[in-house]
Amino acid sequence: MTYDIFISYKRKSLATANNLYYRLTAKGYSTFFDLDEMKKDNFDVQLLNYIENAKDVFVILEEGSLDACKIGKWEEDWFCKEIKHAIDAHKNIIPILLGGYQMPKAETLPDELKELTLKNAPEFSYSFFEEYLNKLIEKGFITAEPLASNKATSVFKFYSNENCQVLKEGKLVCSLEGMADKPFYLPVSRKGDYRFKCINSVTTETQILKQHIDSDEEKDVDIQWSDHKPFIPDQEWPETTQISGDTYIVTLGNIRFKMIRVEGGSLEIGATKEQEDCAEKNEYPAHTITLPPFYIAQFPVTQNIWELVMGYNKSYFKSKEEKLSSSQKTIPHGVWVTMGVLLGMFANNLDSDKGHFPIENVTLDEAKEFVRRLSKMTNIHFSLPSEEEWEYAARGGQKSKHYRFAGSDNIEDIAWYRDNANQSTHPVGEKLPNELGIFDMCGNVWEWTETTAHSYAIDVKPEGNCYIRRGGSWWHEEKNCRVSRRYASDHSKKTSGLGLRLVIRIK
Q: Which of 411, 396, 391 is nearest to 468 (CA)?
């Protein structure tokens, strides 16, 4: 199979590539962009063959797309390889510049890619996507000819008020992110009835959509999901909240959680002396960081708080209490919440959150949504910790005794891990805390950070959809639960050993 148009893109530009593919296909152009169509064992050869046989190659560029050139590793980057192959094969290259991105200067690119800077790129706008394509066709930027036999007669335009996936005949059609104000175009070649299965990416709620379409019709398909915000106080929280003291406690309905103040200062992190025998390459070099004071949650986020805020709980391991229905546990709409003094997490009594299991099986996007909703509920700006904040706190900050783990050189004292967890998470706070009184920073569940994957050794801006998680989990061996252990995962990753912890940054 050959294609007249090839779309080259970084994974961060997938949504645009997807939309471009379906719009071109709807106009009758033979277009390739889906790697799933290729055999996995020979994909590199196939990919280059598709480029060689194409007439036009779209190259989608945005901030960070060509960062591999900055660090001299462009030859290892498949996106750059595709561009080089298109140049070498003398293909008609059509750049698409996203988010105000400007074509880089020739001197910033290797000789093999400099020709890219000579290509014209009409100004792109999501709001005028169709007009943009028509302009490319009108001005002769696209040299391929549409095939009348391939041209779609009709188009579905999908919108959604929350993240979801749309399937047709069991095959994924599209993924809609957030409030899908940019519709996803699905061309169809016949009139009649269509049946789509839609799954909410956050709650797993499922809908079956039956749609009818006539020839030469564009049909808007709105996917409406219930608003999963069971706890919304009628009264606003104070706009100015003074956060002070060694601890700060937030009372949310009948749940309280504690934040512990971490004094600012300088501390060496990474492959420090006590870590060196097990340190991985990405922990080097050890280096000193300096941070201002901040607050960090005493425990990882537990399932009772998560369910109160999000309205669902998809954790793999649940206590008997967490298995109660949402209606039994959540606070009715309109109940005002009092505020104490701020944060630690999880308890039925008013002193601790012990006895509750950590939330797990959540993606980074879900974790960020939880943080957003909690911040909106309380008018307190919560965040996920940065990688530096996490390690600084795990090591004990200015009270650090330079332990191998968070609070001890003996992992049995402070963590649930492979050798003692009995293949499960455990309620938070059952082990000893570290020097700052923070629990479960090693073992039990990994914790998402907001830091994108990068190397300590190379001074380059991180890019992509991979983020650092820290701390190890119930199913990891001892060496992977050390305070310096770094692990990168795609933002869509979710496992029974991956959760989150909160911080509050002091302005």
A: 391
Tokens representing 76 are: 């290892």
Sign of CA dihedral 469, 472, 475, 478: positive
- 403-457 pLDDT, tens digit each: 999 999 999 999 999 999 999 999 999 999 999 999 999 999 999 999 998 889 8
The reply to whether 247-505 shares the fold of 5-148 is: no
Looking at residue 345, its amino acid is M
Q: Are 434 and 441 in contact (CB under 8 A)?
A: yes
Q: Tokens for 435, please give them.
A: 């020097």
Q: Measured between alpha carbons, how far is 437 from 459 in angstroms, rounded to an integer?
A: 34
Helices (H), 203-316: 303-310
Q: Are 119 and 97 in contact (CB under 8 A)?
A: no
Closest CA to 416 of 402, 428, 399: 428
Which overall architecture, per CATH, does domain 5-148 show? 3-Layer(aba) Sandwich (3.40)
Residue 322 and residue 360: Cα distance in Å, rounded? 13
Class of domain 247-505: alpha beta
What is the distance in angstroms between the CA of the first residue and the CA of the last residue of the chain?
58
Of 67, 57, 12, the C-alpha closest to 33 is: 57
CATH number assigned to the domain with residue range 152-223, chosen from the 4 options 2.60.40.1120, 3.40.50.150, 1.10.238.10, 3.30.465.10? 2.60.40.1120
pLDDT tens per residue across span 96-124 = 988 778 888 899 999 999 999 998 776 77
Q: Is 235 helix (H, G, I), strand (E, B) or coil?
A: coil
Any idea where the domains of the chain sit in the sequence?
5-148, 152-223, 247-505
Dist CA 331 CA 342 (whole Å) = 20
- Which string of b and e fits 101-125 if b means at least 16 CB within 10 Å? beebeeeebeebbebbeeeebeebe
Alpha helix stretches (DSSP H) within 197-312: 303-310
H helices, E strands: number in the chain? 10, 22
Q: Which H helix or E strand runs over 85?
A: helix 78-88
Model pTM? 0.55
Cα separation, 339 vs 367, whole angstroms: 23
Residue 255: burial class (beta carbons within 10 Å; 0-12, 13-18, 19+) = buried
